[in-house]
Design goal:
The chain is mostly beta strands. It contains no helices and ten strands. The strands form two sheets. A six-stranded mixed sheet has the order 2-10-9-4-5-6, with no helix packed on it. A four-stranded antiparallel sheet has the order 1-3-8-7, with no helix packed on it. The protein is globular and about 40 Å long. The chain starts with a strand and ends with a strand. The model has no long low-confidence stretch (mean pLDDT 97).
């Protein structure tokens, strides 16, 4: 059973940067397609970015050019580097093993003025 734990969220100023991390277990991480999702208050959870086992990446339009997803297979860790943060990036961010139905607890990102 896949298990993920997100970390790295917090309060950041508009235009600032933040790096999220996700520790995964219960899977062969190097073979797993991984993704980041986010859910803003009152809104549905949406996809942010994905990275395949090959290292190929894809991004939602709002993340392109600002966010970078990466993985460290030696450490079973997924990351999301977020730059030029905007108020609308405020959300709970979730890491997910794309082939799994389970979710972690998420990590809160709040962008302030």
């Amino acid at each position: 059973q896949a298990h993920v734990v997100e970390s790295g969220g917090g309060l950041v100023q508009f235009g600032g940067s933040l790096r999220l991390s996700c520790a995964a277990s219960g899977i062969t991480f190097s073979n797993a397609a991984m993704g980041w999702f986010r859910q803003a208050p009152g809104e549905r959870r949406v996809w942010v970015a994905s990275i395949m086992s090959s290292g190929a990446t894809s991004y939602a339009d709002f993340a392109k050019g600002r966010f970078t997803i990466s993985r460290d297979n030696a450490k079973n860790t997924l990351s999301l580097q977020m730059n030029s943060l905007k108020f609308e990036d405020t959300a709970v961010y979730y890491c997910k093993v794309l082939s799994s139905d389970s979710w972690g607890q998420g990590t809160q990102v709040t962008v302030s003025s």
